[in-house]
Amino acid sequence: MKLGVDTYSIRSQGWDAFGYLDYSKKIGLDIVHFSDMGSFASLETPYLREVKAHADELGLLIEAGMGSICPTSTTFRPARGTAVEQVERMLDIAVELGSPVLRCFLGSSADRRTDLPLEAHIQSTIDTCLAVKAKCRDTGVKLALENHAGDLQGRELRELVERAGPDTVGVCIDNGNPLWTLEDPLVTLEHLGPYTVTSHIRDTSAWAHPRGAAVQWVAMGDGNTGLDAFINEYKRVCADVPVTLEIITGGAPRVLPYLEPDFWGPYKGVLAHEFARFEKLVREGQPFIGTMLTATQNPELPDEYRAALVAQQRVDLERSVQYCKQVHQLGESQP
Length: 335
Description:
- By secondary structure, the protein is an alpha/beta fold.
- About 40% of the residues lie in helices and about 15% in strands.
- An 8-stranded parallel sheet has the order 7-6-5-4-3-2-1-10, covered by helices on one side.
- Strand 8 (about 205-210) and strand 9 form a beta hairpin.
- Helix 1 (about 15-25) runs parallel beside helix 2 (about 45-60), helix 4 packs parallel to helix 6 and helix 6 runs parallel beside helix 7.
- The longest helix has 26 residues, at about 305-330.
């Protein structure tokens, strides 16, 4: 099974697309997943073909990505054009890069608390998917909707994909984001596994908190939310889909205050038997006590702290790669 990296894992390095490719080859990866095009000096065809040629020379595959395709989402960027225009433009870019998928998403947890109900955002996303269905078929590129930043539970995203049409819409499964929606990652995989076409994989620690639960993303092997069981089941259910690492360390724990009544408004549809599996993870978990610098990004952050966070991204990604290779025999390339 191929092993890749989402460049967001090492977003602070200051590299361009060629730098990400060279580094990924150096640490023995098979795929570079550009979840956005921010590191590309140009989106014009000649430059894209240069990037693709360099990846081919290194023996690397490229996956392409973009942001929200939901025009009603708080995360959507209308300055870039309509949702349909943005997706159609990115489908052409994906073709030039040789990417079989285009990662995208609805929005974030904020979309569960807007004046518009979540179902309206889901329908807006479906409308975009249906509007570009013909172009997806023509290009052979499949939309890969991520369960992103607490926007959707696995069951909700599965229903979205089924309504939008699994022939042109699949899933970029993220096993770190389900914890933000009170969901055990294995529950997410049960819902989304059959539709998964790419992935964002990381480890997470979860534990009981006086207000409910706290969760914190950590490097592979440092968490307590069933990573090894998830990967073993992923290898069975998604045998032809790469494991793409999105290692996000350095952030403070996120508190989920579900013991407070006003928390539940956006989560009234959560199923009790699925929440019970999440609660079991929380009750059995402990806070992460390993080595990790955590700091908020702000202008006053000392340069020494900023440099340490940049270095930590590489350190945690590289040891996560080694964990995947040694514990789960993932990856086909060697450094």
